[in-house]
Write a structure and sequence with these properties.
six-stranded antiparallel beta sheet; single chain
Length: 259
């Protein structure tokens, strides 16, 4: 009888040790990912800060530059049948329905390349790319921007990111837009008198041009992201602290000289 109880106890202890070890592994995995995200955002902050402000591009400039000015050109593009207005540039982003423990909502699909329509000119420089990263507000979706037939498909979801639903609880779209006359800041790589996309830190497949209302907002958004990563990393680190302290003590005992 005592042997059976001992076996059950050992089995429970083994199961508990497995799950505790799994949670520790998961914690370190999450911590490592958060630190990578923080580092990538910090590198992008440095790129934004060090971008050389220029009024025009010349063939001898070969570096990351910043252009500040008013959007030139005409409003020529729209999402036919969905939007009623036209824009110089329109980026249509895909959102897919997904659920977590806390709630269900449309979540941005990071793997899908956005649909980019049009281009524009700023300070005489043509701005064109397959992918833009925006530090501006999402295009408001309301009676003034959306085709009347689509008004019932507007989804707010309690966020500042309005969407047009294509398939309920499946797919929706959000929009970024640039209009003629709008004051913006653009950051990209100058090469041979052209403005080209550059690679985002940590995302080799994302070659983008940055567009924002101004440099200060770009930096503010990146620093907010870094603060969020730092807070969550701190919480995870508190969970892992006893394990780390135990490892350090074992290491110190190993290298402690014998008397």
């Amino acid at each position: 009888m005592a042997k059976k109880q001992q076996k059950k106890k050992n089995k429970r202890n083994g199961s508990g040790s497995f799950w505790l070890g799994f949670l520790k592994f998961l914690g370190f995995f999450v911590l490592f990912g958060l630190l990578l995200l923080y580092w990538d955002s910090a590198r992008l902050t440095k790129i934004i800060t060090n971008a050389r402000p220029v009024l025009e591009l010349t063939p001898d400039i070969d570096e990351i530059v910043r252009l500040d000015g008013s959007v030139e050109g005409i409003a020529a593009v729209t999402d036919e049948g969905k939007l009623r207005n036209t824009y110089a540039l329109l980026q249509k982003e895909t959102f897919l329905w997904g659920c977590s423990k806390s709630n269900c909502d449309y979540k941005r699909s990071e793997d899908r390349r956005p649909e980019v329509l049009g281009s524009f000119v700023i300070n005489g420089v043509v701005v064109q790319a397959e992918w833009f990263r925006f530090y501006t507000n999402w295009l408001p979706l309301e009676f003034s921007t959306v085709d009347p037939s689509q008004l019932s498909n507007i989804y707010e979801g309690g966020t500042s990111r309005p969407l047009l639903v294509e398939s309920p609880k499946k797919r929706a779209y959000g929009y970024y837009a640039v209009s003629p006359g709008e004051q913006i800041t653009v950051i990209g790589r100058a090469r041979e008198g052209r403005l080209e996309p550059f690679t985002l830190p940590g995302k080799e497949e994302h070659n983008v041009i940055l567009i924002g209302t101004n440099m200060e907002r770009m930096l503010s958004e990146e620093r907010e992201s870094q603060l969020g990563y730092g807070i969550v990393s701190g919480i995870v680190l508190l969970f892992l602290l006893p394990t780390i302290v135990g490892w350090v003590r074992k290491l110190l005992r190993r290298f402690k000289p014998e008397r």
